[in-house]
Amino acid sequence: MKFGVVTFPGSNCDEDMVYVLETIMGQQVERLWHKDTSLKGVDFVVLPGGFSYGDYLRSGAIAKLSPIMGEVMNHADKGGYVMGICNGFQILTESGLLQGALLHNNNQKFICKNVYLKPATSNSAITKGLDAAKAYKIPIAHGEGRFFAPEDTMKSILDNDQVLFHYVNEEAQVSDLSNPNGSMHDIAGICNPGRNVFGMMPHPERAADAALANEDGKRFFESILKYC
Ligand SMILES: NC(=O)CC[C@H](N)C(=O)O
Question: Is 71 tagged catalytic?
Fold first, then answer.
């Protein structure tokens, strides 16, 4: 599979993502620039983490207007795979490819730490290869990660089994302390109704190399490669 990793002005996890896909997972990767108007034949588009346009006006609000986003939307509309990590997730909600919004964390602070995630569904390429009972240790680093959706939107997300991950504690249980940002229903990631667009706030690419002593994130990429 050929992956495309998009760099926006202010992206800072683009090279981490390229490294994991290319060097750890052995995949072909095309670096895409936000001003490109072609996806250069990639099968799977990744919008990486960072601070596109300095997070003005809201995280992702300006990046959604980048020239490449028209092509990303066409790709998704045709059923092509798109994944947004952290700032990438914010760009996907801003552009309407995913429902809901990422609001400021409820403590109004930037949070950088390891959290635990449990897959919420097996019906997606990114979760199908994961252990439904396991808590995966994955880092977060965001100031605007509190997933919010109006009641009717949230109902359709839940009814359509679109939640990909919940924040849990190390024992894979939801607890008062497991949700770092106050997101509704402890949601850490969702997919679209077509199940080809994924968004998540935690960073699996930061936990995919044995040198970092945590390869839990590598399982997410293995699942993608197996089921996409
Ligand atoms: N790691 C990131 O992608 C940063 C996310 C984002 N711009 C925020 O602070 O909310």
Answer: no
